[in-house]
Amino acid sequence: MTQRLTGRTALVTGSSRGIGRAIARRLASEGATVVVTARSMSPSRSLRDGQEHVLEGTLEETVQLIEQAGGRAVPIAADLEDRDQRAGLIDAAADAVGGLDILVNNAGFADYSSIEKMSEATFDRTLEHYLKVPFLLSQAAIPHMRKSGAGWIVNIGSSTGMSPIRPFREYNRTSGDVIYASAKAALHRFTQGLAAELVDDNIAVNAVGPSTAIMTPGAATLLPEGYETEPPEYLAQTVLEMCTLPAAERTGLVGFSLHFPWSQGIPVKSLDGKDELPRREPPAWCNPNIADDGLRA
């Protein structure tokens, strides 16, 4: 293994399962000491459309997977909807591992509903998770990164944050993802604007989203039956690539998980970093607003 992140420290939010767990494992496989965080140490409960759902996966399981592969991880429970808990998360993470080089804003909330039927509470909660929380955590992380002379912030975006394919697909007519997608579009713009503000401090800010979708415990009820999904390894690899170069060389990008490695000829490794996965061409039905180089057009 190349161990490109040896000596680096990282915080990955929403890393008890799914995409966050995959990213934490991949960063750890390259030598980073990773702080993994989620709402609690036990399986999470998510309220959607008035119904409570228990989502499998815990921080302890993520730590075990990382340690079994020879890496190091530290769990910190923090509810990002709680003002006090999120206010102290960055400093707690930096204290636990001796600084903070990498921040991955992955934690999220999705409760799809048509505009006509969506509650104001769901609207507010969606915007809080995908714009306010990344703003607050990035704001708190900047002094730590500036102090060390370098840093990397990666926000998890989405192809839904781009204009929908025309003529409108059935998905766009019926999925109810408009507010989620609007929040992701705002996150893309936040990424690019913050990158401009921090490039002279050698702090890179990039966004990475799935080229299609990734099946996770949280997304299972939102994806239509039969929807073609992609393995999380390609997104985790793309996030890693956004955490390895100085800001002057790679910042302000909105990249996509199948397109970026494919177009750049980047080998994709397993989450433990030991095996190389097959090259995976993006399917033809992906959003055409993703450019050939794997970035937002």
Automatic annotation (TrEMBL):
Keywords: Cell wall, Secreted
Domain Ketoreductase: start-end pairs: 8-211
Positions of region (Disordered): 274-297
SMART domains, A to Z: PKS_KR (SM00822)
Keyword hit for Secreted: yes
Localization of this protein: Secreted, Cell wall
Catalytic reactions of this protein: a (3R)-hydroxyacyl-[ACP] + NADP(+) = a 3-oxoacyl-[ACP] + NADPH + H(+)
Predominant location: secreted
Keyword NADP carried by entry: no
Recorded coiled-coil stretches: none
Transmembrane segments: none
Family according to the record: Belongs to the short-chain dehydrogenases/reductases (SDR) family.
Record's protein name: 3-oxoacyl-[acyl-carrier-protein] reductase MabA
Provenance organism: Rhodococcus rhodochrous J3
Lineage: Bacteria, Bacillati, Actinomycetota, Actinomycetes, Mycobacteriales
